[in-house]
Each structure stands twice: as structure tokens, then as C-alpha cells.
Specification:
By secondary structure, the protein is of the alpha/beta class. It folds into 4 domains: about 180 residues; about 220 residues, Rossmann fold (3-Layer(aba) Sandwich), CATH 3.40.50; about 220 residues, no CATH class; about 240 residues, P-loop containing nucleotide triphosphate hydrolases (Rossmann fold, 3-Layer(aba) Sandwich). The chain is extended. About 25% of the residues are buried.
Length: about 1150
Amino acid sequence: MKNNFNEEHKHKKHALTELNEQLRLLVGRAQQLELQNEKYTAKLAELRRKSFIISTTSTQNDECNRIQADLMTVNYEKVCYESNIERCQLQLGMYEQSILAEKQWIDEKRLKLEQELIESASTLAKLCTSYAEVSKKLGTSRAACEDTFQQYIRVTNDWSFSKEKTNESKITVQMVKSQAEFRKTLYSKFDVFSMEMSDFAEFWTHEWEDIIKKIRHDFEQIYATIHREMTTTESSKFDDNDINDDDLLAACDDVPLKKSDPIIPIVEVASFGFPFEPYQIQIDFMRSLYSTIQQRKHGIFESPTGTGKSLSLICGSLRWLFDEIQSWKDEYEELLKPIETKNETSSDNWLKRLMKRKEEETAREKRREELKVKIDLEDQYANAAKNTLAANIKKTKRDFDAKYRDLFNSELLSKSDGDDSSLSKDQFKIDNDDELSDEELIIKDNDRKILFDNIDSPTKTDPAGLREKKVHVQKIFFCTRTHSQISQFIGEVQKTKYVDQLRLVALGSRQNLCINESVLKLKSLTLINEKCLDLQKQKKEKKTTKEKRQKTACGCSFLQHDRVECLSNDILSDVQDIEDVVKLGRELNTCPYYATRAAIAAAHLVVLPYQTLMHKSTREACGIEMRDNVVIIDEAHNLPDAICAMHSNEINGNQLIDSYGQLSRYHEKYKARLTAKNLLAIKQLLDVQINLIKTLCSQENLSTIYDSEKWSNLVVSSNKTETSSTFDLIDYLSDAGIYVNLFQLIDYIKTNEITKKLHGFMSKYPVNKNHISEEKKTNESALQKLLQKQAQKQSQPNVLDEEQLKTTEQRISNSFAIFAKFLEALTNPRDDGKIILIMKETLGQCSIKYFALKTSSFFHDMVNEARSVIVADHIVPADNVLAIALPSGPQNIEFEFTAVNRSNTAMMDELGRVVVSLCSTIPDGLVVFFCSYDHLQKTYTYFEKTFVLNKILAKKKIFMEPKRSSDVDTILTNYTKSIKSGTGGLLFSIVGGKMSEGINFSDELARCVCIVGMPYPNIGSAEMVEKMRYLDSMKLKSTTAGETAGRAYYENTCWKAINQSIGRAIRHRGDYACLLLIDKRYSKANIPSKLPHWLANSFHQMKNFNETSNALQQFFVRRSNKPTSS
């Protein structure tokens, strides 16, 4: 067992030894691995270092490669530049050779022309010599004729004396000799010796006249030949490349007028009827105007402010008008004289002479009849205007008698009926709520009458009777932008000598001329027009209890044909302003609006606003005839924008929805009683309306059942901000699915007067809170929904908000008229405008706008029809204005009033310092224009917060342009009083606002006009984008290199507003003011080129505020030494 143990122990010891050996080997291996690891670590570090070095080297190599590539590019460009230089040098050499060749060609041509001139001069000398010889021969011939005549007299005397004393043969021989000598001398075609002595004198008179005519004919031919040669010689001096204006004018001075050219007389200064001694510039203006009208031409006239532009237009045009009328009378008297008979030789064809004489007599007769009509018409209208006073007295008496006769008859009728109630004044009031019968509301085939019967009677209140066809006299249309300018113009007319013989009428809108208080209270011009037309109803017959018929008034009491005619004659009897006409209308209880229309035909001078003249349908409705008449347009810089605005049209979603509701309710009510033709037309109108609505929203969102409130409040856009998109007119109609003939629909609306019938329908069947419609509930109008909502809100179902009710009624009643006007806009030519969809949050807020682009097409008809079109504008004398661009304020803080920077407090502080300083420098009135009301309000609030207003109030009183137009006169009156009292005034206003147009800040009312920022329009608006795109497509030339026509229009819109603002301040020759443009953008180098020439000469770009302040002080010191003259 011991041995076994030892053996086991030995075995274990051996195993332990092996394990130790293995452990030793493992330790050695581990040491080797550790050494190897350190070696590898060192190698790895070395590799990393080398990798870094290689990486750095690679980056350097890449950089080197790039540099080499750039170097190659530079070398290539250098080679290209050198090549281009060589090419340019080669082209320069070619150009020099070409110039030398052209110069040689010019020299050769000059030598040739000089040679031709010498030859022409020689030819002219020969012609002059020939002319002298011919003159000598003519003298000799004339002397021979005279000698022959004297010889014949002697022979005849001798023959008479010797007849009894000599034999017959001697007399015969002597007569034969004389006859042969006379024939040889005169080459006479007649045997004068075969005549009796009584016929000899008449024959010789004719022969002598023929000789004189032949001499004159030969002389005229010689003169024409000489003149033609002289003209040819002179014209050969000029080459097409060398002619300048002075040479051309000098050459034209020698050319006589042709017989067909009108000879324009030089009108004497005194005959123009100027109220005082005119300046030379006024004389030249009037003569040029007279000549332009006389020659049936169109003219553009420009006159400096203060030179009496309006008076020059009035006197020059009216002088021509009355000269033209006098020329009719002179020509008529001349045509009354018999035609002078001309002695024709027997060789002429007597049939041709007879036919020619007959044609002349026919033409004279026709012209005589035309002149007679004109002269008789002129005398008739003149006598009517003179006799208007007596006619008014008779008419007033007749109306007075008629009124009390009707009152007496009414009293008798009441007593006979046993009615003890007395007559009240209400019996004589206008019944504006009188309803129409269903028969009058239903559309009939070929219904060309207005809603009321018996309209053709001239004794009833018939506006159609006032529009009867009248023959118009020769007249002048004077067109301006605002009614205030019309008043100013009429005031100038009243200063002239023509005031006693002139028949003048001033046209205005119903809003300015209506005297019916029930109509005027509507305020809106569209509603006033509609209400006026609605009141034009005839008297209806009502049965009394005894089956007697009695007439009751249900129309406008101021509209009666006889009284309107009297008032129109009264208007023409004296030169009267719009306010005078309204006052006269109130005194006579007669409508001034229709009286002025009735006076158009007889008027010499018609003064009217742009909208009436430029809009064709308005012009036709007023009965204005343009043919052969003169049109004068004042303030022409506003003309394109005015034409564009009046021919653009917009309709919103609410109006579309309401007009669709009106027509659909009308269709539902009367569809069983309408003919198939009318049903088809109404269905087409409904389709057009619904298709227009669907262009504003998706068809899926629009319910098939009409619900005005639901449709109006339908959300069509998740974006609460306004967005717009533009469409071509034809593409829009195609996308909307409108394929019907719109011209026929418009004619249908006008012919059958759908607008009036729908208005009468809505008046007869209003939708109010107590109305239980026979229609479906879903057909309730917007008015019902509004009333229900209001009732729920107040928890009083029987209480109505009268103001909201009236507003909604007006909106609903007016919607179809707006739709009809928009439908007319869709019939304009494709290139004349674009369609703009304006999208907002709800359908009722969205709108569709037709934006007119091509204004020339609307102006074209008027220019073609008129005899002459004169456009006039004013400029400001350079000595009377100082324009300064101010880039920074007293602390050198730069101004840049963009939309983003307008709330910058540092700039507003600097602006405040500028305004305070100006209040100390500028005497009397200071007007500061801002680009928007929002900018003005922010600045004013900030000035108030930072006590800037207190500093200004210490020097001048502060006024601000009001939001409401009714407050403008009050602000202006107080502003004027403050300045007149010596306190001074500061007026904050808006560019393009109520005070920048039509209001004159003359003399001390505005010694300085400041414009804060640049009044650019919104370049992102759909209208501006389309206008610029349209002008660019026309490829018009711009005045600035590299600038498109659209961009030029955008820039000019800004500068037009600036010019208009400064134009309000300088109103006469002695007036003066300074213009301060506060923004660093006015200091750009290209700004002077964008200014008109009269302003560019006085424009200065200052570096700092100190220079500006010094320049302002020097300007006012210099102007204070000059007298002010108006």
C-alpha cells in the first residue's frame, strides 16, 4: 500500500513537474507575445505617423493639383483674352477701313451733289433768261394787239366816213387788206369783218379776256417750273444720314401751302376774350389750341402751373366754337347767292358743262340745308334759354292750379263717400313701397317695355320721355377727374367774356344732383341709382268704394317732363355750378339730374367727370354724342388709371350667392307661367352663376341644395391670409364651364329689364322673420338666416335689428345688378384684361375680379368719333420748387422706410428730430405724407409716446388726415385758420389719400411737403403683377437702359404719386414750396432720370441733414425777397 502511495505520489510529482514546465513555457510565450505586442504597437504608431504624413502629403498634392488646374484655367482665359484682343483689333481695323471708305463715298457724293447744284443753278439762270424773253414777247404781243385794235378802229371809222364818198371797190380792197393784216397778227378764229358793228365790241371783250387768261396760264407754268427746279436743287443738298431738324424746318419754310391745305388764320389776342392781359405763353397756348381744333387734329398740351392753363383752354376753345358757328352763317349767306356764270367758248362740251353745273348746284343745296339745320337749331336753343323765365312763371302757375284742383276733387270725393276724415299731408307723399303686380313681374316674350305701362305719355313722370332723340349742336366736352375740379373750372368760365352767350351744363352723378331725401339717405351710389330707377313708376289706377277711379302718386314727384324741360332751359340760360343747379332744382321741385341730361343737346360746353365720358355705356345712357365734337381732358396724368379702374369689375362670393338666390326664387315662383324661351334664358343665367361660384370652391364642398348662410360661411381655404391667382379670360370661362353666348344673355337682361323685375320681386315677396315660405326650407335667403340668428341671440323672437335688416336688404336687392355688370366685363376682348381670383377663408369673402389692362381699346372709340381730342397737364416752374433727397437725420441714422423697417424705433426717433427741426425752419404750413395709413398711425402713436408731439406743438399745431371723407372739410378749415392766425400748422397725410388729390394747398398752406419713404404700390398684388407682365409682353421701350416696361411702370407709379403731392402745393405763378424726400433710396444715381424735367432741375441729393437745413433756409430767404403774385 505504501508502494502504491509512493507510486501515486511520484506520479503526481511528475505531473506537477510537467505542469510547471508547461507553466514556464506559457510564461515564456506570454513574454514573447508581450514583446511582440510592444513591437507591433511601435510599428502601429510608426504606421499611424506615416499615415498622417501620407495624408498630409495627399492633401498637399490635391491642393497642388487644384492650383495647377486654376493656373491652366487662367492660362486658357489669358489665351482667350489675347485672342479676343486680336479679334477686336482686327475688327477695329476693318471698322477704320469701312469708315474711310464711307468717308470717301460721302466726299464723292458731296462733290456730285455740288456739281448737280451748279448745274441746277445754271438751269435756273437759263430759265430766268427764258422768262425775261417770254415777258418781252408778251409785252410785244400785247402792244401789237393794241396797235391792231387801234388800226381797226381807224379803218372802221374811215369806212363809215367814206361809205358815201368813195366807190364800193376801194372800200372792199381796204377791208380785205385790213382783214388779212388782223388775221396775221392775232391768228383769229373768227371772221370779225363779217360781223355787225354791234357784235364787235362783245366779241373783242371775250377775245381780250382769253388772251389775258393765256398769258396768266403761261406765267403760272413758268413760275411752277422755276419753283420745282429750285425745290429739287435745295433738296439735293441733304443726304438721309445728314438731315437735322433745323435744316428740315428751314427747307419746309420755302414750300408754299397746297390748295387743299386749310389756311389757319392768326387769331387776334383781343378776340380770345381773356379776362385780363394775357402773357405770351398764354397767347401761344391759345393759338396752338385753336389751330389744332381747326385742323381736326389731336393735341397734347403742357403748361406750367400758374400760367392760367384752365383759362387758356377755355378762351382758346370757345373762341374756335363761336368762330365756327359764325362761319356757318357766313357760308350760308354765301350759298344763298346765285352761281356766277362763266363764259365758255363754243368748243367746250356743253353736256359736260351742264352736268358739272348740276352737280355743283346739288352739292350747294345739300350743304345749304345742312347749315340751315345747324343755324336754326342754334337759334332755337338760344331763344329757348332766353325765354325760360316766362316759361317758368307759366309752368309754376299751371302746377299750382293743378295741385289745388286735385285737392278740391279729392275733398268732394271723400264727402260723397261719407268719409268724415280730413285729408292729411300723407296723401301727397310718395308711396315708395307700392308693390307691383305679378303680371308686371313676369317676363314676357319680346318684353321691351319697362315695368310700368303708359310710359310714352309726355305729361307723366317719364324719364324715357326725357331721353327722346334730340339734335345736338356743336359742342365742347371738358373732362376732369373730380367734382371739385368741375366747380373750379366753371368758376374760371365765369371770368370770361363768353359767359353771356355761352350755354353750359355740368354733369354729375345722382349722388351729387338728386334732391329726393328718401333716395339720398341710402348713401351708396349703386343703391341710389337703383332706387331712382325704381321710383320711375307711372300712376296706377285704384278703384274706390263707388267703383270710381282715382289716381295716386307712386313715383318720384320731382320727375315731371314739363318741369324738367323748364329747368334744363333755366340751366342753359346762365353759367351755373352743380351746387347752383341743385339749389335751383330744390326751388322748382324738379330733378336736377335729369334736367342736366336734357340740357346736353343744346349746350355749347359740357363739363363732366372722367367716368361719364370714358365709359361707353354711361356715355350712351347720358345721350352724349362724340361725333364731330371737341373733347378736352384736363389732368391727363390720371387718365390711364381712371380708364383702367372704371372698366375693371369685381364681385364677391356673397353677391354671387345672393344673386343666385334671387333668380332661383324667381324661377321657382313663376316657372309655371314663363314661356319656354324665358325659362331657357333664366336657366342659362343660373348655370353661369353657379359655375362662377364653383370656381371659388370645390364642387364636392358645395351642397346641391341652396342655403345662402351655409354657402357664405363655407370654409374654402385653410390659409387665413389672402391669396390670389390670375387667369386668361377665355381660359377662365372654359375652366368654369361657361360656354353660353354671354352677349345674348346681357341683351336679354337689358331688354327684359331683369334687374328691375327681380328688385320688384324681392320687394313684393321679402323674406323676413314672420315669413313662412311656400318654398322649401333650404331655399331661405340670407335675410331669414340673419333674422333667426339675431332672434336667438337676443332671446326675443319678435325683435329685429333694423340697421342690420336694412343693410342686408340693400345687399340682396343690389346683388343681381352687380352680377349683370360683371357679366358685361366678361365680354371684353381677350387681350384687354385678366381674371383674378381672390381667395380668403370663407366663400362669401372670396371674390372674382376682372382687371382691365389694355386701356387704349376703351379710348379708341372716343378718339375716332371726336373732331379733336385735347389732353392737358401742368408742370411746376423750376424756380418755385426745391427738391431734396434726405438720406439721414441729424444723428446720421439712415432712413429706409421699407415695410420691414417701418417699426424701427431708431429711425422713428430720427424722423421725429427731423420733423421738429423742420417746424422751426419752415414758415406757415408743413405737410408730411406717409405711404400708408398704418405707417402714419404707428408713427403718430410713437411720437405721442416719446413726447415728440409736445415739441412740435410748441411750434406748430398738429392735424391728421381723417379716415372719414365727411371730416376732411373740418380738418382743412381748422388747418387754414391755424396758419392764417400765425400759429402755423403741421398736417400728417397719406400719399394717394383724401388730401393728396383734388385739394389745393396754395401759398402758405404748404411751404414744405415731406414724403416719408417711397410710395411704391404693392408689387406682389395680382393687379400689379399682371400689369407689369402685360407691359413687358408689349415689348415697349423703357427710358432706362436694362429696365423693362413693366418695371418702368412700377417706378413711374411711385413718382406720379410724388409729383401729384408736390403739385398740390404750387398752384399759381408766384407760389413756391420745397419737397423733402426722406429715404436713402432717393439718393441713388438714377433717381434724377426718373423725375420730370421741371423737378429734376431743382433736385438735390444732400449728404447730411446740416446741408439740407442750410439749403432750406437759403431757399426761403431767397423767396421772401420776391413778391408773390397770383
